[in-house]
Each structure stands twice: as C-alpha cells, then as structure tokens.
Amino acid sequence: MQYCKFGSTGLTVSRLCLGTMTFGLQTEEAGAHTILDKAAEGGVNFIDTANVYPLGGGPSLAGTTEDIVGRWLKGKRDDFIIATKAVGKMGAHPWQQGASRKSLLDAIDASLRRLGTDYVDLYQLHSDDQETPLDEMLLAMETIVQSGRARYVGVSNYLAYRLARALGRADVMRVARFVSVQPRYNLLFRQIERELLPLATEEGLAVIPYNPIAGGMLTGKHQVSDKPTEGRFSSQMRDAGARYQERYWHEREFSTVEKLKGIAAESGIPLVKLAIAWVAANPTITAPIIGASRAEQLTDTLDAIDITLDPALKARLDDATVEYRWGDAAR
C-alpha cells in the first residue's frame, strides 16, 4: 500500500480508502468484518462511512453501518483514520436531517456512540443543504472541531461554486475550513474535471472520490439486456438501485464499457484495475474509495493502486470517455 498526505493537512492516509455503504444490507456483519480485515491486511488505514448507511436502507436501517464498523474497531481504533458523514435523513422528524446546528450536533454525538469512539478523524457534510444558512453550518462544524469530536471537516456531493463560497466564508469567519471533498468520479462520470478538481488543486483540498468502478459497471460483467437481480443496480438496494440504474444503465454507457473492455484486453490489465488506476492517476486525487459486498472483490481493487498507467494508455482511456466530462450533476 502507498500512503500520502491528506490534501494540504499533515494527516497521512492510505492511497485507497475503504467505503462501507454495503454493510448492513448487501453485506451482513460477519461478511463486513471479513472485508474490513482484508482491507486492513492490505494496508488500508482509511475507512469511510456515513450515518445514513447502509445505502438503500432508508431511515429504518440508518446507523446500522456505523454500528458494524464500531464493533469491528474495538481495540484497534488508533490504527485507523475514520471518516463519517451527516445531513441525510435519520428519522421521521423534520429536524433529523440537514445541516442545521441542531442536526449536526445531534448527528455527531450519535455517530460517535455507534462507532464506539470519542472522535472521528474526518467529519463530512454528505450533501449540500441549501435551506440552512452557510454561516450556521460552518459555525456548527467549528463547534464540532473545537470540542474535539472531529479532527478535520470536509464535504461530499458539492458543486464547485458552493464549495468555493464555503471556503471563502470560513476564511472570513476564521472557523474550521473544509479540507476535503468527496465527489463521484470514474471513467463514466468526469464532470468534476471541469471546475471541482481545479478548485481542489488551487485550494489544496484532499479529493476522495467514490464510485471509481461506477457501481460495478466497469467490471464489464453487465449487459444492457440484463435485469439486475443482485448488487448495486438491483431492487435489493431499494431506491438506491433505481438511482444507480439512472446513472449508468444506458446504451451509451454499455457501448463505452465495450470500448474500454477492448482497451483493457490489449493492455493486459483487467478493466476493474484499469478503472481504479485511471482515477488514482489524476494528480488531484488523494484516495479513491473502494467498496465491496464480498471480501474477494477486494483482490483486484487493492492491487490497482500499484499500477502506473503508461501515458499513451491513459490518453486512450481519456479519449474513449471524453463525452462524460460534460454536464452539471452535483452527485
């Protein structure tokens, strides 16, 4: 495993981060702990979760993933960098979501209880709550940092202009500044290259992208004629399955995957490894977030970080997917 600084901070993290959003719905606790064990054995010291996980579980299962991670962490907390997130819907009441002061202060305390720790290393806003004043949100995050409940703060699923505004206000108010951003990024979704990644470079932000293999689309195992019966695209994932189909399950994407499979075959590198290596090759990227529903799925993904892409091969991948740079999706 390789390690690097987390943006412009002094924090050191592994060049791959383990995502946990499958734990508690796609993956039962024993399987989740096996995945965590394998990632740790592979040198991963960076684990990302969220209070609303498991993905697709809804408010009735929200918090389950943090519980699972917390039980695994017992006795080894100091060996890992733990990140979690808030903002998503955690209950029936209207204040049990969003980035209000009440919501964030309640959410961090609940996450710490579930994770079995006094602090998280990175506390992130899972999405942009535009109904809460920016200053209120920033002051709440400052309170969380000053209280010692989080070492650093970041955001996920933010448009570049909103993140730039938040950074500017934090500087003016002299409060905790966001040090990272967690966007969707892969060969089939490259919109962040236009504005968000240049902003991150200029501001020294860590970038920890999720979906580096497009929810499994870049394994090359799916066919457009298939009806997904398991995994990220299936009804097992409830509303999340529909969301992933809306993102990727289209003729255009399947046609591109076929091109990428051909490039992968010529290079002698499996498409999964090639897709993650391509994300990691961007100099602005800190640590792609890899996920799994079974431990054996980590074999190829953990190895991908050791691949150095030949410039000509990277250029071919860039050219084959250039159309996915256009658009204005926030997530």
Q: What distance lies between the first and last C-alpha atoms, to the nearest angstrom? A: 28 Å
Shape: globular
Gyration radius (Cα, Å) is 19 Å
For the biggest sheet, the summary is: 8 strands, parallel
> If you average the pLDDT, what whole number results?
94
Number of distinct beta strands: 10
Low-confidence stretches: none
* Annotation field: number of helices: 11
Helix content: 25-40%
In terms of DSSP E residues, the strand content is 5-15%
Give the neighbour order of strands across the main sheet. 9-8-7-6-5-4-3-10
H/E topology pattern: EEEHEHEHEHEHEHEHHHEHH
SS content category: alpha/beta
Protein traits:
12% strand, alpha/beta, eight-stranded parallel sheet, 331 residues, two-stranded antiparallel sheet, single chain
Overview of this protein structure:
- The chain has 331 residues and is of the alpha/beta class.
- Helices cover 38% and strands 12% of the residues.
- It is built from eleven helices and ten strands.
- The strands form two sheets. It has an eight-stranded parallel sheet. A two-stranded antiparallel sheet has the order 1-2.
- The protein starts with a strand and ends in an 11-residue tail after the last helix.
